[in-house]
């Protein structure tokens, strides 16, 4: 490697590259293969994630994580656990001190917002869902904001 204290160059081949670089080369080869229907990214719309149930005392908002789990590859594993933790921490940050939420094993977060009117509570719930979707799956999540813009463009 060193001759008289001067580093020499060795030819770079796949065999003498670190494993990490060889792995990246494998990924580069995968980038050029055609995408099968099963490999296509799953887009998730905010409309399918947020539901609202109205009662005499107000509305309960339900975040269903089913489609986001499907986009991440399933309900088990590190990504699914991270999604649950991400949802819990986001709701803790965005809900007030007298507002509560619960997570159910079937992939649902339920929460009630104590806003003065139902419309402001709905907008606040939509912002929470948008943030969760963008954090979890990025550009594969279609936010409420983009759905509204699309509706305005169609109506114009």
CATH topology description of the largest domain: Yope Regulator, Chain: A
Compute the number of strand runs.
Answer: 8
How much of the polypeptide forms β-strand, as a percent range? 15-25%
**Portion of residues within helices:** 40-55%
Can you name the CATH architecture of the largest domain?
2-Layer Sandwich
CATH class of the largest domain: Alpha Beta
What's the alpha carbon Rg, rounded to whole Å?
Answer: 23 Å
**How many H/I helices?**
6
Q: Please report the distance between the alpha carbons of the first and last residues.
A: 70 Å
Characterize this entry briefly:
With 156 residues, the chain is α+β, with helices and mostly antiparallel strands. It folds into two domains: 2-37, no CATH class; 41-155, Yope Regulator, Chain: A.
Protein architecture, described:
About 45% of the residues lie in helices and about 20% in strands. The N and C termini lie far apart (about 70 Å). The protein contains 6 helices and 8 strands; from the N terminus they run E-E-H-E-H-E-E-H-H-E-E-H-E-H. It folds into 2 domains: about 1-35, no CATH class; about 40-155, Yope Regulator, Chain: A.
Blueprint (SSEs and pairs):
Elements: E1 2-3, E2 6-7, H1 19-31, E3 44-45, H2 46-49, E4 50-55, E5 58-64, H3 66-72, H4 78-94, E6 101-104, E7 108-111, H5 118-137, E8 141-142, H6 144-155
Parallel strand pairs: 3-8
Antiparallel strand pairs: 1-2, 4-5, 5-7, 6-7
Helix pairs in contact: 4-5
